[in-house]
Design a protein that fits this description.
The model has no long low-confidence stretch (mean pLDDT about 85). A hairpin with a 4-residue loop joins strand 2 and strand 3. The chain contains five helices and three strands, in the order H-E-H-H-E-E-H-H. It starts with 10 loop residues before the first helix and ends with a helix. Helix 2 (about 35-40) packs across helix 3. It has helices at about 10-30, 35-40, 45-60, 80-90, 95-115; strands spanning about 30-35, 65, 70-75. Helix content is about 65%, strand content about 10%. It is mostly helical and about 120 residues long.
Amino acid sequence: IPNDFFLTGCYEDFMENARLLMFETFCRIHNCVGIKMLAEKLNMNVDDAESWIVNLIRNADMDAKIDSKKGLVFMGTHTVSPYQQVVEKTRNGAFTAHKLLDRLKSSKLDAETWNM
């Protein structure tokens, strides 16, 4: 990747953002992640990965804790309020209902045209 034509000027930024994406993905899936495993996935050594994670947690104000003795990162639970769950589930409901109504109207007009 360092010799990629499109990344020559922004290789470090690309790698930093890739690491951030990987870390966010693991944290959304798992409540507890091993620092050694994260270091492998982030293409870093364990000490650098631990300091990178500490800085990330500090700067992003994340609800996470690091147990250096066990080599684990514990992520806090992120609960979604029932109101937010309803909003997310029904976000596209009005648009979908409107499209369905348009389809029904057009199919009714097509049926009436063919029956004449």
